[in-house]
Amino acid sequence: MTQKPTPLNSIKISGPIPAHLARSVIEETLRNAILDGRLPCGTAMRQQELASLFGVSRMPVREALRQLEAQSLLHVVTHKGAVVAPVIEDNSAETYQLRMLLESEALRLSIPLLTDADIAEADAFIRALEQEENYAEMGRLNRLFHMALYGKAPNQRLLKLVEHGLNEEERFLRFNLQAMGLGQITQDDHRELLNLVAQKKVEESVLTLRNHLMRGMEVITTYLNGVDTTGKKTP
C-alpha cells in the first residue's frame, strides 16, 4: 500500500545530526518549515515521528518543541499534543499592545549603543525591502530591520521576547502581506524611524515606533474582520 504523504515528508534531512547540535538543528528546521508554510497550521508534531525523521532520540525533539511553543509557533492541544499554531490569532490587538511596550523599551536601550555600522545595516534592509517582490522574503527583511535597531539593548531576555513577537509577525506577513497592501507605507515608516535613530533622538524614535506599530495593529485588525483563523477570506 502506498504511504499517504504528510507535511513532514517536505522536510529533507541530509546525513546524521551531531548529538550536541540536535536540538538547535531540529528547532531551526521545523521553524523554517512552519514559517514558509510547508508545515501548515494544525499539523501534529509527534515526538516519535520527528525523532525517526531526524534520526535522534526523543529528548532533543522534546526540547526543540518547547522552544517552538515558546515562540508561539506551536500550541499544545489536549489529546493531540503539539500542533502548528494558527497563522492568525484572535488576540492580535493585545499582541501589538504588548509589542509596543517591549519594542519601545528595547529601542530606548539600544539607540545610545548603536554604531554607524548598525545604522548602515538597517538601511540596507530597508533598501532590500523597497526592491523585494517576494512577500515571504519581505516578512523576513522586516524582522531583520527591527532587530538591527533593537540588537544593542543589553537586556537579553527582553530581546528574546521581542524577537518572538517579530517571529510571529513574520509568519503572519508571509501569508497576508499582499492582501493587506502594506508595502510602501511600511517603508515610509521605516525610513522615518531610521532617520531619527541615526540622530540619536531617543524619545522621538520611540514615539515614531509606537505610531508605526499602532498603524500596523489598525490595518491587521481591519483585515482580520474579513478572514477566518486559518487566514482565508470569509464570505
TrEMBL record:
Pfam families: FCD, GntR. This is GntR family transcriptional regulator. Residues 20-87 form the HTH gntR-type domain. It comes from the Bacteria. SUPFAM superfamilies: GntR ligand-binding domain-like, Winged helix' DNA-binding domain. Keywords: DNA-binding, Transcription, Transcription regulation. Transmembrane segments: none annotated. The lineage of its organism: Bacteria, Pseudomonadati, Pseudomonadota, Gammaproteobacteria, Pseudomonadales. InterPro entries: GntR_C, TF_FadR/GntR_C, Tscrpt_reg_HTH_GntR, WH-like_DNA-bd_sf, WH_DNA-bd_sf. Signal peptide: none annotated.
